[in-house]
Amino acid sequence: MAPERRRFHGRRLARPLTQRRKELLETLLPRLRVPLPEQGTLDPRALFPAPPEDVWLEIGFGGGEHLAWQAERHPEIGFVGCEPFLNGLATLLTAIEEKKIANIRIHPDDARLLLGCLAPRSIGRCFILFPDPWPKARHKKRRIVSTETLDRLADTMRAGGELRLASDDPDYVQHMREVAGNHPGFRPLRTEDAATRTRPADWPATRYEEKALAKGASCRFLVFERGPLN
Fold it and tell me: Taking the model in full, what pTM does it have?
């Protein structure tokens, strides 16, 4: 079955790109782009020349600084990043080229299209860091952290896999706690409020976190584990 198409909310381009970044979108992105199958499921380990030990997924990687940092430090892991915005894609592609990072593949569209195609138990870790909080009541249904998304992640992640969430929006943090904490497929690994204020050592800061801190906001870092498979 062909991947479900979704309506994308927001602009795909925030500011003009340099000529070099346009070239990377035209030349490097097609080589790293994740092909979505028309039928069946996608084994993400098959995206890499040598099958990696595990595959980690980042949904909404922004400028890609967290994704590039993780990929550089875990060459044995295959990484798949999802981001629809051209500026963020171009920034990550620049880092991949300059640092010669070989273990990243990219889905340049809504992550939920990819989640509908991934093979069961094929993802060992998932990051959703500082997603758009959609604070207006009429827009909250657009939030990527939802029961629907977690249902798909529960099918896609292996037992013991980690789901890492972060936000500086208090309402979204509470939403994340409730949706993930009440989901039968996940259980919290960091439950004390004092602990969730501290970013784990293997979790680098993103530019969104730095912007939030500069404005005086408080960030929360939540970690959930995929529970035993049913």
Answer: 0.91
